[in-house]
Task: inverse folding
C-alpha cells in the first residue's frame, strides 16, 4: 500500500497519541480494519482514545501521522 492511498483516511485512536508517546490508531482499509502506530502531526498535540482522526502522512509499513478530525 502506498503513501497516497493512506493519506486522508479516517481512523479512531485506540492508544493515546502525544508527545513522547507511540500511540495507536485503527483505520478501515483493504476491506477491513488495521492497527497502525501513530504520532501526532502537530508535535505538541495529545489525542485521546476514541478520537476520530485523519491520516496526514504514512510511513510504510505501519506508521502514520494523524490529526484530530474535530476540535474538542
Result:
Amino acid at each position: 500500500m502506498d503513501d497516497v492511498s493512506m493519506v486522508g483516511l479516517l481512523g479512531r485512536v485506540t492508544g493515546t497519541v502525544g508527545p513522547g508517546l507511540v500511540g495507536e490508531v485503527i483505520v478501515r482499509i483493504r476491506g477491513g480494519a488495521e492497527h497502525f502506530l501513530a504520532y501526532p502531526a502537530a508535535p505538541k498535540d495529545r489525542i485521546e482514545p476514541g478520537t476520530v482522526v485523519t491520516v496526514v502522512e504514512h510511513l510504510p509499513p505501519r506508521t502514520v501521522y494523524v490529526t484530530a478530525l474535530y476540535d474538542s
In short: The beta strands are 10-15, 23-29, 32-40, 52-59, 63-68.
